Amino acid sequence: MRSLSYVHLAFRSVRAHISRSILAVTGVVIGIAAVVIVVAVAEGARAEISRQINSLGSNLLLVQPGAQVAGGVRQPAGTVLSLTTADALAIAREVPDIVIAAPFVGEEKTTISGDLNWSTLVAGVTPKFFEARGWRVADGQLLNDDHVASAAKVVVIGRTVARELFKGSDPLGRFVRIERSSYLVIGVLAEKGQDFTGRDQDDVMFIPLSSAKIFTIGRSQVNPEAVHTILVKTESAQSMQAAETAIARVLRLRHKIVGRKADDFRIQNLIQVAQTSDRAYRQFTSLVSTLAGISLLVGGIGVMNIMLVSVTERINEIGVRLAFGARPQDIRRQFLLEAVLLCTIGGLLGLIVGYVCARAIPSALGWPIEFNGQMALIAIACSSLVGVVFGLLPAERAARSDPAALLRSGL
Amino acid sequence: MSSLVTLDHIHKQHRLGNQTVHALSDVCLEINRGEFVAVVGPSGSGKSTLLSILGCLDRPSCGSYYLHDEDVFAQSKIRLSELRNRHIGIIFQDFNLLPRLTALENVALPLFYRREPMRNPTARARAVLEEVGLGTRMRHMPAQLSGGEQQRVAIARAIVNDPDLLLADEPTGALDTSTRDAILALLDVLQRAALTVVLVTHDPEVASYARRTIRLRDGAIIGDTGCRGAA
Ligand SMILES: Nc1ncnc2c1ncn2[C@@H]1O[C@H](COP(=O)(O)OP(=O)(O)OP(=O)(O)O)[C@@H](O)[C@H]1O
Ligand SMILES: [Mg+2]
Question: Which residues span the domain enclosing B91?
Fold first, then answer.
């Protein structure tokens, strides 16, 4: 009899006590909503990281001056200017599997155009830098080797700088003042957005490394050839580990560091840096996961409670079913299914609530979120699991009830 | 053995705290196919206890029960469910219809639990409801039916799976006399159609419908008008 099937029965009995049922599954609703939020944020973080890794350029190592660890205290990068342009050349020459080793100097400067000024990162680079990061211009051209060789006063600016200094007019062919020198704008970079630290990657301008050293930045009395960073691009992701070791060997040799003496440089894998930069997400997701766990537990107990009440209320129904041939496992199945249905309804409501809440996260907390079909699956699986776990006891009690009590009602 | 039911030295004790109540003591009984038996006795004499044992709803403390030569209480729980499903139908004083099912669905309940499926269970349930005179009340909920109608639904439910044994505990106790007579007439018809009926009652008038009367007092049989019954 279709109309008597277990699912149909479960629906009827949930519907018969609709408000009580909804109250009972509130915990499940909250728990599943929290699960949905956690998954949305975690997925969003993952998508964001891989997007950033793409924008950083793949297979990149960052070599910076400064001891990795000095006496247990980590020195800020760049306090000792130990890396030089020659180091970059040596790395490119001597380390196998390396495509590019691009030197970089950079400093925060106030730049001026007409009566507008803007403080931004001014970086001295060679054309290889753009190659390593895979950056392109939206307008004009990039720096080339001639610009570097002649220490030309030309600049390629990021989108944000273009917007702030030129307010919508075409920057190409105009001039930007950096300290006492004027630079001709020859290119505007394509927009890239924020990096994993939240820094605006378009708030930057690039001048030839040679020009930077002569006119503007990175001038060190101690070491005129010093650079702030060497950006290294390896052939493949697999060769990064070996390249890291080889670079360290080359630099130790060049810097005459022997034995147990510490390095005067450090090498970072940008992907690892990006992946460890999501601590805030992690704290949030572990907090909400805890909330999810507690809510599901409370929700499960709520469902168990309502099911126990239901078993007591329906002791006559159970007796009748047993008296007319139901096996204990039929009764168990019926009540288990009812608990699962109850929780699944809670799970579906939780899915909706979680979706609505998660939608508010990007604007409230500034984190990206991501939804996928898997989430609905997880929500339904979690909630039915809660139903099974917390439905077992009531179902067992129902299955064990004594049908002989039916004939005792007259007493 | 040719009898449908054989009870062999059945005892039933209930434990209430540290006190033991002897609900049945040393009951021996044979009921043949097609009999109409009334069980009478004062309140607390063990009538319902006897019926719940006959209906495989409760186990005796000791003694054996043979249904169709099958030793009932030596069977597994699964087999007991099957016996209840296929060989026994029960009618209660307060009907015990499931309140959220329609009359038709209530009648179809034993078919739902039937192990070997029936070709058209709904048609069967409908036919039985018509047989008890409720062809026009199939879609009604129990609360929308009168007491007599509810008891007819309960009877239909008890016979839908063609049982051998129909058990009734005070089936007319909650009904007025004219409805009572209609219900008893219905049971009589069923019994004449080769059903074995065991009916528990206080009421001597009800008992007079039966062809055999068993008297209980303090859990023991003190009288049996049946010629082949063992006392
Ligand atoms: N579960 C139980 N626990 C304790 N005592 C019980 C239990 N069930 C029945 N009894 C006792 O067993 C005796 C027989 O009860 P039973 O219900 O069979 O009587 P009855 O003849 O049907 O009475 P009535 O006519 O009032 O329905 C009674 O004394 C009753 O108190
Ligand atoms: Mg009784």
Answer: 5-230
